[in-house]
Amino acid sequence: MLKKEGNILITGCAGFIGAALCKRFLKDGYVVLGIDNINNYYDVKLKKDRLESIYEFALRNNLRWVFNEISIEDRESLENLFSRIKPKLVINLAAQAGVRYSIKNPRTYFKNNLEGFFNILEVSRLNKIKHLIYK
């Protein structure tokens, strides 16, 4: 079990599951750091509303929440973030959704879902992350 003072990094935090998970870990007393690229595949306003909801929840309950707009495709930004925050747990929910989208835009789908996931794996390995959960 993680100690409560451990940082948790959640990718895809502006998504439905990611936002709910952020609130859950915050409620349990963890420091939560969320990243999302806020792409426009789903309604951007909905994503920003979810982020605002997490922020308000954290503020209202005096909890530690930090958000960075980062794509998991951007390895350099991930490396900088990991070295700064030193997460104890990484939960990777970031992904380009949509089977039809993957057929029409295979490069985008590949870049985000495969290269992005590889970046998470590699940066986690280099930073000796002991706990990585992915969907």
Question: Can you describe what's shown?
Answer:
There is one protein chain. The protein has a single domain (about 5-135), classed as Rossmann fold (3-Layer(aba) Sandwich). It contains five helices and five strands, in the order βαβαβαβααβ. Helix content is about 50%, strand content about 20%. The chain has about 140 residues and is α/β, with parallel strands linked by helices. It has helices spanning about 15-25, 45-60, 75-85, 100-105, 105-125, and strands spanning about 5-10, 30-35, 65-70, 90, 130-135. Strand 1 (about 5-10), helix 1 (about 15-25) and strand 2 (about 30-35) form a beta-alpha-beta unit.
Unreliable spans are none
Using the coordinates shown, work out and report the CATH topology.
Rossmann fold
CATH superfamily: NAD(P)-binding Rossmann-like Domain
**Strand element count:** 5
Indicate the CATH class.
Alpha Beta
Order of helices and strands: EHEHEHEHHE
N-to-C span: 20 Å
Largest sheet: 5 strands, parallel
Strand order in space, largest sheet? 3-2-1-4-5
Please tell me the CATH architecture by its name: 3-Layer(aba) Sandwich
Quaternary form: single chain
Question: What attributes characterize this protein structure?
Answer:
135 residues, alpha/beta, Rossmann fold, 5 helices, 50% helix
